[in-house]
Amino acid sequence: MAKLTGKQENAIWPMPKFYFRVSWGSATISFSEVTGLDTETQIIEYRHGSSKVFSNIKMPGLAKVSNVTMKRGVFVGDTTYWDWYSQIKLNTIEKGRQTVVIQLLNENGKPTMSWTLNNAWPTKITSTDLKSDGNEAAIETIEIAYETLVIKNANNP
What we know:
- This protein has one helix and ten strands.
- The protein has 157 residues and is mainly beta.
- The chain has a domain at 15-35 and 70-153.
- Strands 1, 2, 3, 6, 7, 8, 9 and 10 form an eight-stranded antiparallel β-sheet that branches. Strands 4-5 form a two-stranded antiparallel sheet.
- The radius of gyration is 21 Å and the shape is extended.
- The model has no long low-confidence stretch (mean pLDDT 86).
């Protein structure tokens, strides 16, 4: 719990979610939205034959992560998504796997939380929709599958 000293640096505040950066390989790429940083543990239900309790025991099983979806604007001459996606071939994704790091930044641009997606690779790219009467920015989406998620807090490495 925060000490009541009246100093702002000792207070605990929720972090705003709009200041973040994403990097994979040697590139740092700007995105407007990142979703799907979910992890869960599957449940194994078990009951041994001599149990006097007439219900199952629930035990933790395998970890399960969801795909991460990232959105960003379309830029002239930038084919970063497509270059990565083109490295993925049927049953041969070893060359296309990357480590993707998503960092939530504080007001000074220092990471406060980080999500590391290990052995990540693109599963889907969605290009922008086109409208002759639209005035929005062109947005493309990439969906990334990965094997493990490592979450770190700057105060608890």
